[in-house]
Amino acid sequence: MTTPADVHDVRDPEQPGRLLSIERDALIPLLRGRAEEDFARPVAACPGWTVRDVLAHCSAALTRVAEGRFEEGVFSPEANDRDIAERDDWTNARVVDELERGMTEAGAVIAGAEGKLDGLALGEWVHAGDVREALGEPGAYGGAGLPDALALLARLTRERGHVPLHADLDDLDEPLRLGESGGERPPGRFIGDGPTLVRLYTGRPVGGAPAFELAGVEAKELNIFR
């Protein structure tokens, strides 16, 4: 019999691109309606970066994927800083335009990459949450893309042999199984909402998040970006 966990283990090649498209349709209009000074706001999840820096990083990464440019050292901290610096003289509107194109065009490339770039799509969706939070907008790490993001997160953690966790989420009817122990340790347990789970798995602050329960595992063990 097929279980919900088994379904999550089957890669849907369209899922990463779908996640990006859903977020594009929500984020881009929001950005076009913000004042110029809002782009200079600091982003708590990315110390030293402003909203504009995060957007420039995302737009550069997605454009690189869409154009198939994967030179040595790509996506390293040094490369990310160079990408941002190269856009220093761009208007905010131009950065947003590039981001919109990247979120539209990168999905097809990610779909054909046999899973190698799926984590990048999830990371860009998380960065969109970072921006939402910095701008004081609702829906950070949630919204219409959350089901795809959770399914993608669960599959990636299992593929990478991450610490096992069973999550009972307010946002899903069925429990979500993350990570894989190989029988070496019993799974931890999370009870709470999906956005808070995303925060824990991506090292984002959980202060101010709805109440949750975490047992059998330390929060620092969950961070997939360590």
TrEMBL record:
Q: A Pfam family name for this chain?
A: MDMPI_N
The domain of life is Bacteria
Mycothiol-dependent maleylpyruvate isomerase metal-binding domain boundaries: 23-109
Which controlled-vocabulary keywords does the entry list? Answer: Isomerase
Write down the InterPro entries for this protein, in alphabetical order.
DinB/YfiT-like (IPR034660), Maleyloyr_isom (IPR017517), MDMPI_metal-binding (IPR024344)
Isomerase: present as a keyword of the record?
Answer: yes
What Gene3D superfamilies is this protein classified in? dinb family like domain (1.20.120.450)
GO terms of molecular function: isomerase activity
Official protein name in the record: Maleylpyruvate isomerase family mycothiol-dependent enzyme
